[in-house]
Amino acid sequence: MNPAGILIFIFGLSIVVFPEKLVRVFFLGMLKEGALSGSGKLFYRLIGSFFMFLGVGVTVSI
User: Fold this and answer.
1) Predicted local distance difference test score (pLDDT) of residue 55
2) What contacts 24+ positions apart, CB below 8 Å, involve 29-32?
3) Which one, of 4, 9, 43, lies nearest residue 23 by Cα?
C-alpha cells in the first residue's frame, strides 16, 4: 500500500463531503456562507471523486 495514495484519497473525500468549507478555506474566508451554488457543489464533488479514484489507483498500483 502506498501512503501517498491514501493521502490523495482522504483529500478527495474531504472535497466530496465538505465542498463549500474547503472553497472558503482556499479563498481565506472571503466567501460568505451559502455562496456556492448547487452546480458549483456538484462540480467540486466531481473533482473530489476524481481524486478519490486516483487515490485508490495509486494505492493499489504497487
Assistant:
1) 92
2) none
3) 43
pLDDT value, residue 20 = 81
pTM greater than 0.85 (yes/no): no
Q: What is the DSSP string of 40-60?
A: HHHHHHHHHHHHHHHHHHHHH
CB under 8 Å to 62, separation ≥6 — which residues? 1, 2
Spatial contact of 55 and 62, defined as CB atoms under 8 Å apart: no
Q: Are 23 and 36 in contact (CB under 8 A)?
A: yes
Q: Where are the domains of the chain?
A: 3-60
d(CA 12, CA 52): 5
Burial group, residue 2, by CB count within 10 angstroms (0-12, 13-18, 19+): middle
